[in-house]
């Protein structure tokens, strides 16, 4: 629910309640005043009758009018003057009347006078008040709606502008977010805070990036030293004769470590979007080049390759495209069996790489995770597919894995 | 052949000097940006091995100064950062090659040899080892003046072995040189074995000596002793 809708809902409920309550009070107050006024007129009538009786000592003649009914009867004694509201059912339909009852002494007899006036006007007042209330509530809802449509949209404009700017902001662009200073204090505060926040994040990001570069330097140099020293050691044949296995193992470990390091750096760089797609590349050519590179390995394992490559052009960083094709092909060969097959189909929009393998189905949820190794071969560093996935995420490609007909399928959608 | 090694890490510096000196190169070393500027301004080298990140400056700046002074020394950049931009920048500034740490000394030696051959147009472009002569620009090999037909990989392997003669080269090092470090599969050792076997067979058939020695199952050495 939008902020304004929520506010509006509360506001309108309160307004309606206030109006209903106010109208009720108003109605009763007015009703009381009008009755009071009517009572006063009736009292005047009483005084007039009393005055007439006092001067003439006889009862006045009763004149029937439309808005006043007078009647009297003999009474046993003097009673108190009272007011009632009565319903007259004698005429056409029901009619509410306000009536005064009083006794008057004329001669030696007591007479009970009843003077009544209709309440018609007071009744119609109620209808007017209800009508006005409903009209007011309707008007308020209408105005609220209009404010929502026009005013609020205009008022929130700077907010939505800031949101648009934040949406297109990327930390890798290296230019800090500069949200405009706006007239409304709340939005100005928001923009200022966001500007400061991104500035801080940008600083942290830059220092982290520098750190990665420095860490690479700091780690690769000792590695280079170890490797060069080991190579010097290898030149001493008596040392090699005694430590052949150890030297071999150290060499392999150095190699793995340096590759692991490079892969992690590459992953970081891809995550930081340091490779921007700028040119159109021929994917089929890249795949052919990669197959050429791996030809010897394919031949050694007597793998049959079935290629169905259509000329496909996509916009992607060439280095990333090479990595994707290389890693997938590398896996297809590495986890293949002797005399197995690799099938590569490239069509506009999709690349499918299928390979036979002695290994069973892989865990779909984990396959693209870092350091996940399905097979028991220990020469892979478990980063190949997560790099492919990461590139896919950055370049906007989808990558899926399937296991069908005892084959592993990797499908990439462009 | 004079080589200047600009590398601030003394142990790595020493390893390079030891390895390259054993290959009859005359090596000088400096460990700082300013010393390097002094040396490069004063002397001419056949090849300069240049580390980009120096404690008191950027190696690329040295490269710029060299080119600004119109010097023609061959330059191979060493970098710990496997940054594509650094590599492109370095090559655009006129470096001849680029090597990422950690590298194999044998690989460095091959790259230096290639740079020196390219720079040394007037001189000999032949690699010689006993009766084997390799004509690098023509990519042809002859044994006792008879042409020897080799496959592309066999040729690359032979050049690599001849340049790194008398050195023990592990299978891993050879594999990385031949196929790059993308492929680090144990299976590669089988190809190396196959290529070595074929090369040795072809050399022997052409009348060359048996120079390829297996070193304790760990690697190979190309030597006439």
Write the layout of secondary structure elements.
The complex is a heterodimer of chains A (414) and B (225).
Chain A: H1 3-56, E1 69-75, E2 82-88, E3 95-106, E4 109-118, H2 120-168, H3 185-234, H4 237-271, E5 280-282, H5 283-293, H6 295-300, E6 304-309, E7 313-315, H7 318-334, E8 341-347, E9 350-356, H8 384-395, E10 398-404, E11 407-413
Parallel strand pairs in A: 6-8
Antiparallel strand pairs in A: 1-4, 2-3, 3-4, 5-7, 8-9, 9-11, 10-11
Chain B: E1 2-6, H1 10-21, E2 26-30, H2 33-42, E3 47-51, E4 53-54, E5 57-58, H3 59-68, E6 74-79, H4 84-92, E7 97-100, H5 105-119, E8 126-129, E9 132-135, E10 140-143, E11 146-148, H6 152-163, E12 168-170, H7 171-179, H8 188-205, E13 212-215, E14 219-222
Parallel strand pairs in B: 1-2, 1-3, 3-6, 6-7
Antiparallel strand pairs in B: 4-5, 8-9, 9-10, 10-11, 12-14, 13-14
Helix pairs in contact in B: 2-3, 6-8
Number of strands of chain A: 11
Distance between the termini of chain A: 36 Å
CATH-derived topology of the largest domain in chain A: Heat Shock Protein 90
- How does CATH name the architecture of the largest domain in chain A? 2-Layer Sandwich
Oligomer: heterodimer
- What is the radius of gyration of chain B computed over CA atoms, rounded to a whole number of angstroms? 18 Å
Helix content of chain A: 55-70%
Overall outline of chain B: globular
Strand and helix order of chain B: EHEHEEEHEHEHEEEEHEHHEE
Q: Helices and strands of chain A, in N-to-C order? A: HEEEEHHHEHHEEHEEHEE
The CATH architecture designation of the largest domain in chain B is: 3-Layer(aba) Sandwich
Q: Strand order across the biggest sheet of chain B?
A: 2-1-3-6-7
Beta-strand portion of chain B reads: 15-25%
